[in-house]
Amino acid sequence: MQEEWELIEQLRRGNKQAYTEIVERYKGKIYAFLYRMIGHSQDAQDLTQEVFIKAYCKIGDYRPDFRFSAWLFRIAANHCLDELRKRKRLPATTAEESELVHENTPERILLAKEQHEVLHEKLLALEDDHRVILLLRYVEQLSYKEIAEVLSIPVTTVQMRIFRAHKKLRQYMIPVKGGGPVEVREV
């Protein structure tokens, strides 16, 4: 695999193979992020394609002093939030089948699945700015500084939003069949 910076430079010169390589590297992460934001598979697929088209058109704006993935997530987050604002509706609350954590007993598997579904529904119920910040932090594992860059906000605002999002999510969470509340880290 070529180094990321070489690919970006080739893409800037119009190399279509470099674009294909970048899409292949990041499409899974971008799709997963957008799916968690939107809650609907087809919409997430459409938005993922649009994000890569925007990235291609704006590749000249990319500055190498930031991680490319953070720049790409900024485009994805902004595009998704714009789309949600345009729709002026809440995202779908039904979750598609999600991967299960492999555990010993069928009972534990069912419990984990139920907890994951509840968490997914509660994440979709959060305000957009709270949901995006939790996904960037815990799913994409971006640092506070990277999240600040992606969302164009100060680091202190990132910290405040994460705190408030945790608080709101804890209010939403209820025990599932005798289990305790689901932690955010299980997203």
Structural account:
- This protein is mostly helical and 187 residues long.
- It has 2 domains: 4-87, RNA polymerase sigma factor, region 2, helix turn helix motif (Rna Polymerase Sigma Factor, Chain: A), CATH 1.10.1740.10; 106-186, Winged helix-like DNA-binding domain superfamily/Winged helix DNA-binding domain (Arc Repressor Mutant, subunit A, Orthogonal Bundle), CATH 1.10.10.
- Helices cover 68% and strands 0% of the residues.
- It is built from 8 helices and no strands.
- It has helices at 4-12, 16-38, 41-57, 68-87, 106-125, 128-139, 144-151, 155-172.
- Helix 4 (68-87) packs across helix 7.
- The longest helix has 23 residues, at 16-38.
- Residues 90-103 and 175-187 have low confidence and may be disordered.
